[in-house]
Amino acid sequence: MAALSAWFWNERFWLPHNVTWADLADPAPGVEYPKAGHLLSALPLALGIFAVRIVFERCIAGPCASILHIQTELSRRAQPNAVLEKVFTSITRSPDSRHLEGLSKQLDWDVRKVQRWFRHRRNQDKPSTRTKFCESMWRFTFYLYIFTYGIRFLWQSPWMWDTRHCWYNYPYQVTLKMLPSSDFFLHISRVFLQDFLIMFVHHLATISLISFSYVNNMLRVGSLVMCVHDTSDFLLEAAKLANYAKYQRLCDFLFVVFSMIFFGTRLIIFPFWILNTTLFESWEIIGPYPSWWLFNFLLLVLQVLHILWSYLIAGIAFKAIMRGKVSKDDRSDIESSSEEETETSPKERLKTASSRGENGTNGHFGSKPWSQNHNNW
User: Fold this and answer.
1) Each residue of 76-107: pLDDT tens digit?
2) Does residue 58 sit in the same domain as residue 201?
3) Most exposed: 6, 18, 181, 233, by fewest CB within 10 Å?
4) Alpha helices for 245-368 (secondary structure H)
């Protein structure tokens, strides 16, 4: 273990030239530099945040949902069937025609009946609109508080206005401690989504980057990176809250504002402000070293993701502007099939669509809902 630790914490990789861990371990009286062990203090804080979230959703978000008449939808449950349940949990949640025909013969069921069973079974796992409203209200409150706190701190910091201060006298810089693990517990506590794995990997990579910058004492530039990314998060959650409450015009307006700020921060400020200082100003002031290359590589990967997400958001925002509406979160949609539609008359379908709000107020528009894409940001 000692050999493994010595290899992992190799000074030639982590620190600039002519700097050792011993230089950072014994600072002047009253001065303390970041250490990897400090990250462990984030764990009890994260558990505390998780407890606060539970109380918030039950005592604040829940009553707000009731005031807005957002209730838990009652969806039709699939009848118990051991064979189909095993296929659903072990093989596929959406069987293709070959699987459907095989199950139809095995159970002596009509193919449409098998399709209907899988549709009802998928709906059982979807969180209700009320659950998603409470979840989004918590994230809105948390993100807004974190962003406001960060802006108040950075407004008085010299590196906010001159990014070269991120590298002056580096790494001998005294800054506030950061607790990235609390962000990890915040995201892991979300309700399970269909794209959970992608979301989890993304957040894990982000937290690794934050932890990396903490160990390297790159807290100044790290705080700028976090500020840029926190700018638009609470606006997206606000748009989702408006959508769940069926204030569609407010939802559309907030989403367009979110899109504009997202493009400005991720495609302009991040590359021309953040990457400029991490790539060029740091090279000029402290020079490159092995972990410097890794740090900038991760930031460049993040920028590639920004471009990809901006393309997706632009398409959704364009559809919202052209159609005057934004797709709702399909996690609350009750799936319908063309087979069932043929079994009802046009008059009945019109009545059903009206009762579901599919007149443009709370209907499903577009091929992929905007609120699902946010999980990758």
Assistant:
1) 777 888 888 888 888 888 888 888 888 888 88
2) yes
3) 18
4) 248-264, 276, 282-285, 290-323, 338-342, 346-356
CATH number at residue 111: 1.10.10.60
Tally of domains within the chain: 2
CA dihedral sign of residues 287, 290, 292, 294: positive
Q: So what's the pLDDT on residue 181? A: 42
Q: What is the pTM (predicted TM-score) of this model?
A: 0.73
The whole-number pLDDT of residue 196 equals: 55
Q: Which domain holds residue 188?
A: 1-67+128-330
Separation between Cα atoms, residue 142 and residue 132, nearest integer Å: 15
Asked if the structure places residue 200 within a domain, the reply is: yes
Lookup: tokens for 372: 């699902």
**299 and 283, same structural domain?**
yes
Q: Coil, strand, or helix at residue 332?
A: coil
For 163, the token pair is: 């990014």
Return the structure tokens found at 268.
Answer: 């302009």
Question: Is 114 inside a domain boundary?
Answer: yes
